[in-house]
Amino acid sequence: MKTAIYLPVLIIVICIGLIFSVRDDPARTNPISAESAPLVPGVLPSSEAITLAKTHTGVPLLVTGLADGLIKAIDLTNHGAQLGADLFDAFAAVGETRLAKLEMEATGSSGVGHAESYTFAQLASAAGDGERHLSSGTNFPEHAEETNSQSVFAFPKFGPPSPPVTTVVKREGVLLDYEVELCVRFDRDIATVEDFDAARKGFFLCADFTDRAVLSRMIDVDNFDSGSGFSDAKSGPDFFPTGPFLVIPTDWERFVTAERITTHRGNSLRQDARGGEMILNFRQLIEKALSDLESERFVFRGQHFHLLDQKRLARGQALMSGTPEGVIFMPPTSLQITRGGLQYVLSGSFLRGQSGYDSVVEAFIREELRAGRFLQAGEVIRYSSSSMGEISITVVSENEDEVALNGVDGP
Q1: How many CB atoms lie within 10 A of CB 176?
Q2: Residue with more model confidence, 332 or 251
Q3: Buried-exposed string 84-122: b where 16+ CB fall within 10 A, e elsewhere
Q4: What mean pLDDT do residues 164-193 have?
Q5: Using CA atoms, how far apart are residues 22 and 268, in angstroms rounded to an integer?
Q6: Strand segments (E) across 41-179
Q7: Where would I find the H helices in 22-162?
Q8: Helix/strand/coil (H, E, C) string of 165-207?
Q9: Range of lowest pLDDT (1-15, 331-345, 363-377)
């Protein structure tokens, strides 16, 4: 009789023990569809685009070449541009015709353009001076599939752009994820689709870091467009790394369609896509955003915001494309959900008023932190593109960041 009672209990205990003993594989990753040929970065000829950059000291440059990690460029202060000028203003000051002639002279057989060499570390961000941007979610079909998203959505992103060679801080309790994106900014405010059509468009490589712990806690899984979680999880002083080149193409649609962007985590290729894979192109993204001007559902640090401030995308603010497949985040597995549910019951969390959903989320976050699947201090993330240059980010710990801020040499 006792055996009949204890045997089912023993089986249940053993099953629970097995459920808790089996851990998720920390090496598990989202699959990606990569091109067979390696990406070879370069600079487009002036017949297709004018490529500009700026040094950290404010010198505007016409970029004429890229080879072996070195940029060839012409100092535009010698041709009418002002030191410290925004790159669109430098473009206007020198003029498209003169810029094209300088590029052809520098790349021609005579080489009379007097281009000088620069490293990526010498160059500042090609983004504008805005600290609020228009971000797009799940705008590549495979990324939408890997995150279980049903549609493209938008949200405001807060924080200044950081330069192409920089760091990102990995803070305690953060599940730090990477995303590579195409970005565009304009030579005027964009308040209508007609403004978009008339504007000069400058494209640059950009990236987006995400705290997946914050997003997992705040997201409305039934409605990504609810405005909950994304701004908080994707904003901050080092969460918007940007590339060095502002590429102003003659045909923006053709440029975007062909442009290739990649992410390397260490030596591993983790993202690889072309702009032509976007579900909505940049014009459609603007059109969508301009149709959503009244709602204040977007929450950042407890305050409510409109998608666009003053009903326009201001000059200096960026429009982001969204990211392709290959991010670190994967929705919780059935095993992780089961373990979270069991912990909810066995720990008595339901008696303390915690919801089962929140308990599962917290269990998922704890497991991911233990697994170390997300970015860790010491890692290097490199974003590359066909013709917008590259970004190199070193992940540092909070202690390393404090040492850098205080100007103290490490051991």
Answers
A1: 22
A2: 251
A3: ebbbbebbebbeeeebbebbebbbeeeeebebeebebeb
A4: 97
A5: 27
A6: 49-54, 60-67, 70-75, 116-119, 132-137, 153-158, 165-170, 176-177
A7: 87-94, 96-107, 141-146
A8: EEEEEECCCCCEECCEEEEEEECCCECCHHHHHHCCEEEEEEE
A9: 1-15
CA 136, CA 383: separation in Å to the nearest integer?
18
What is the pLDDT, as a whole number, of residue 70? Answer: 95
Helix (H, G, I), strand (E, B) or coil at 378: coil
The full 3-state SS of 210-252, as one line of letters, equals EEHHHHHHHCCCCCHHHCCCHHHHHCCCCCCEECCCEEEECCH
Task: Read off φ and ψ for residue 170, nearest 5 degrees.
Answer: -95, 105
The pLDDT value given to residue 411? 35
Phi, psi of 260 (to 5 degrees): -110, 135
**Can you tell me the distance from the alpha carbon of 27 to that of 32, in angstroms, rounded to the nearest whole number?**
15
The per-residue pLDDT for 149 is: 85
pLDDT of residue 150: 82
Do 243 and 150 meet the contact criterion of CB atoms below 8 Å apart?
A: no
- Mean pLDDT across the chain, nearest whole number? 89
What is the DSSP track for 283-335? HHHHHHHHT--S---EEETTEEE-SSGGGSB-TT--EE----S--S--PPPHH
Quickly state the pLDDT bin for 335 (edges 50, 70, 90). confident
Task: Inform me whether the pLDDT recorded for 346 exceeds 70.
Answer: no
Cβ–Cβ < 8 Å for 57, 163? no
Domains of the chain with CATH codes: 49-122 (no CATH), 132-328+374-406 (3.90.850.10), 333-373 (no CATH)
How far apart, in whole angstroms, are the C-alpha atoms of residue 11 and residue 5? 11
Contact residues for 300 (Cβ-Cβ < 8 A; gap 6+): 156, 158, 231, 232, 235
Interaxial angle between packed helices 356-371 and 334-346, expressed in degrees from 0 to 180 and rounded to the nearest 10 = 120
Percent of the chain with pLDDT over 70: 85
Structure tokens at 184: 């565009």
Q: Would you state the structure tokens that stand for residue 322, as one six-digit string?
A: 């969204």
- The residue to which tokens 């950290």 are assigned: 56
For the record, the structure tokens of 264 come out as 């390397």
